[in-house]
Design goal:
By secondary structure, the chain is α/β, with parallel strands linked by helices. The chain is built from 15 helices and seven strands. 39% of the residues are buried.
Length: 323
């Protein structure tokens, strides 16, 4: 929460919570930790970065991880389906190759690679999402919501951040503030969706196992679930853990936090990637076998890690179908 001077301070709930990394030296999740840690004020954790996105601040917009304009959404569609220029080919028709050639000359094509791209296989068929009821849990600025809408899905978008909802509502009126731990109290979400996407959420909670179970409960029989979590690689490294400790213990206000983010970011246009991984109270990493077990225990079959071919994976992208 913010005080009158603009400083960020932990809520009373956060102050009473024990941080597994800083206090217990734990960064790789084990299911034996379930129930050990306490929730925090999740609505505050990402809200500043979505505000900075809406304000078009350097490093927080025109970025692979957040941007929702057509060229960036076409990149997301290509990552999911292998089809390139899906939206812009329809928009520009026969002059599309000239548009892309001009962008390459100006360098704007390479700019879209800031933040990295995904290596997902197998790909989804281009018509896979057509007519499906989809749920985007933790929609953020709305890049995956707009991707699913562009591919013909009917999308419900939820997040705990007011600025995230404001961003996503620009193109999807079916948005709602929802805490992932409130899903059990919301029967209208239970077993209702053909496709559920939960990107980078469950590992930033006090209990990723329960968070996953809540997400999985929204998938109808025969539906699919796509979850991304951090892997015990980069995010479990000493460097990232040291950065997080300094960010939380030495940076007292939002300006100090931003200064630190720009200091460690090799490219200032990539600042949001660093803010995203540093600003959460919980930052668990999860083994591949653990998340596969969660899927199986929740009744999913055909559980597949989609980014096996990624050269430097920081996370696991896992898909399963509920039998």
């Amino acid at each position: 929460m913010k005080n009158l001077s603009g400083e960020l301070s932990y809520s009373r709930q956060d102050m009473s919570a024990r941080n597994p990394d800083f206090e217990d030296g734990l960064v790789i999740w084990s299911d034996e930790y379930s129930g050990r840690y306490q929730p925090v004020a999740y609505s505050e954790q990402f809200d500043d970065q979505w505000r900075l996105f809406l304000e078009k601040k350097q490093g927080f917009h025109a970025h692979t991880g957040v941007e929702t304009s057509d060229p960036y959404i076409d990149d997301r569609i290509a990552e999911l389906t292998g089809v390139h220029g899906y939206l812009e080919q329809r928009r520009f028709g026969p002059i599309y190759p000239m548009i892309t050639a001009a962008r390459r000359l100006m360098g704007s094509e390479s700019r879209r690679e800031v933040g990295g791209k995904l290596y997902l296989n197998p790909k989804f068929p281009i018509d896979y999402f057509q007519g499906k009821s989809c749920l985007d849990i933790g929609c953020g600025a709305g890049r995956w919501t707009r991707t699913l809408l562009s591919l013909g899905g009917r999308v419900k978008s939820v997040d705990v951040s007011e600025n995230a909802i404001q961003s996503t509502r620009r193109f999807n009126p079916d948005t709602e503030i929802l805490n992932i731990f409130d899903i059990p109290k919301r029967p209208e979400f239970h077993k209702k969706f053909d496709f559920v996407l939960c990107w980078g959420v469950v590992m930033c909670t006090h209990d990723p196992k329960v968070a996953f179970e809540n997400v999985a409960s929204t998938v109808k029989h025969g539906g699919s679930l796509y979850v991304m979590v951090y892997a015990p690689t980069y995010h479990a490294s000493k460097q990232v853990r040291d950065w997080r400790r300094k960010f939380h213990r030495e940076c007292g206000n939002i300006q100090e936090k931003l200064n630190f983010v720009f200091e460690i970011a090799q490219d200032p246009n990539n600042a949001i990637n660093y803010m995203d991984m540093l600003n959460t109270f919980y930052n668990w990493t999860i083994r591949e076998d653990v998340i596969h077990k969660w899927y199986r225990d929740a009744g999913f079959t055909e559980v597949t890690t989609l980014n096996k071919e990624e050269p430097h994976n920081c996370g696991w992208h896992v898909l399963g179908k509920k039998k």
